[in-house]
Specification:
By secondary structure, the chain is α/β, with parallel strands linked by helices. The chain has one domain: Alpha/Beta hydrolase fold, catalytic domain (Rossmann fold, 3-Layer(aba) Sandwich). The chain contains six helices and six strands, in the order βαβαβαβαβαβα. Helix 2 crosses helix 3. The protein is globular, with a radius of gyration of 15 Å.
């Protein structure tokens, strides 16, 4: 892949986005896409997850677009705001940001421990263009809170209506909108 080609960096959330998930399908549709690998996919703890993204980014050359879902969104935001991201990051698409500070009924009880280290959620402008995509019926983040994140991060905001957590369980395997959003970042 030439250095000028856009590299998609797939940053999954809890469980690593299975084979039918829109992130996996997006990765398959873009040869050269890179998926962040985490040691413990069912235990999203900030420090090791942010380190996993940092490790991946050390091997990405040329323009990069980060594509995060759920805890992957939190990983991208934490990484970008705690360090100086490399100049090759042209942007991020942040889908289904979780509100890791809220006590929502959709969170499994064990997540309180597993999410240790994510609060407080950073509320500063990201150093690159970003788009937050949220759902009115996401059990992990109220729409108003997702809008507040987008505002704080300096992100464009896209409300896709009643779409659950924008994952396979909510019917998001093949997802045409994600391809249009990626295309909006093409140089």
């Amino acid at each position: 892949m030439p250095h000028s080609a856009l590299t998609l960096v797939i940053v999954p959330g809890h469980g690593n986005s299975g084979p039918e998930h829109w992130q996996t399908r997006l990765e398959a549709a873009h040869p050269g896409a890179v998926r962040v690998r985490q040691t413990h996919w069912n235990v999203p703890i900030r420090r090791p997850w942010v380190s996993g993204l940092a490790r991946t980014m050390r091997h990405v050359h040329g323009p990069a677009l980060l594509i995060g879902h759920s805890a992957g969104v939190s990983t991208i935001v934490s990484w970008a705001l705690q360090s100086s991201p490399p100049d090759n990051v042209i942007g991020a698409i942040l889908v289904g940001p979780p509100d890791m500070e809220a006590r929502l009924p959709g969170y499994p009880p064990t997540w309180a421990f597993r999410l240790a280290g994510w609060a407080p959620i950073p509320q500063r402008r990201l150093p690159f263009r970003s788009i937050v995509v949220a759902s009115e019926t996401d059990p992990f983040c109220k729409l108003a809170r997702a809008k507040a994140f987008a505002h704080a991060w300096g992100s464009e905001f896209v409300d896709i209506g009643a779409a659950g957590h924008i994952n396979t369980a909510a019917g998001f395997g093949e997802w045409p909108l994600i391809h249009r959003l990626v295309a909006s970042f093409q140089p």
